[in-house]
Specification:
This protein is mostly helical. Helix content is 83%, strand content 0%. It is a multi-pass membrane protein.
């Protein structure tokens, strides 16, 4: 095995371990939030505010790196200029990929804004919508439901980014996607159809038995 393959394998193992740890912490946090809502009847907006305001000091050690990245994003050309570069590439290749089409669309919405800042703005807005929806969902659903929905959302985001940036889905990715979607569908079937149906049948039998018992007593 070459040095490059060893490094690639090491990076893959490290990334997999980080993802596993993140999943475990996410599941624990979901259960903790569910207990908090049950005990204190807190509002999801409070959880959204405090979980973010208390985490801001953690970024202080990274302030220099964040500033450098911000400067780099601000120095990127506007999408209108980038579109001219892409049009020349299009004449050579004869085709337009999805990122180029997306870039042209964003260029029409913010021609004077640097491309990097435009991407950052879009990312911030979508993250706000996402995290608000997650907190609202966690206040109304169980921790297991929230965790499964988040896993499916992450998988969909991963697949979209893979396709948008021109990468190929390997057989393992397809298998993993099938397992995640299949597990989510099975959980939805169990919680939304089979278990409620069984509960209704049990309640019907119980009510029927009580009705028969009361009839026998009156007779």
């Amino acid at each position: 095995m070459s040095l490059g393959n060893e490094a690639s394998s090491s990076d893959f193992s490290t990334g997999l371990a980080i993802l596993l740890l993140a999943q475990l912490l996410s599941a624990w946090m979901g259960a903790y939030v569910e207990d908090t809502y049950t005990t204190y009847k807190a509002s999801w907006t409070e959880n959204l505010f405090y979980s973010h305001i208390f985490s801001l000091p953690l970024f202080l050690p990274l302030s220099r790196s964040l500033k450098e990245q911000y400067v780099e994003l601000a120095a990127t050309p506007p999408p209108s200029r980038q579109e001219g570069i892409l049009s020349s590439k299009q004449q050579l290749s004869g085709s337009v990929s999805i990122p180029e089409m997306l870039l042209k669309f964003l260029g029409k919405t913010g021609e004077s804004l640097p491309q990097g800042m435009l991407y950052l703005l879009v990312n911030v807005v979508t993250q706000l919508v996402c995290i608000s929806g997650v907190n609202l969902l966690s206040s109304k659903s169980s921790a297991v439901t929230v965790t499964i929905i988040l896993n499916i959302r992450k998988l969909v985001s991963f697949i979209i980014s893979t396709l948008v940036f021109g990468h190929q889905l390997s057989a393992k990715m397809v298998l993993g996607s099938a397992l995640v979607f299949g597990s989510g569908a099975l959980y939805g079937y169990e919680t939304s159809w089979r278990l409620p149906a069984a509960r209704r049948r049990k309640e019907a039998l119980t009510n029927g038995a009580k009705a028969v018992e009361s009839t026998e007593k009156t007779s």
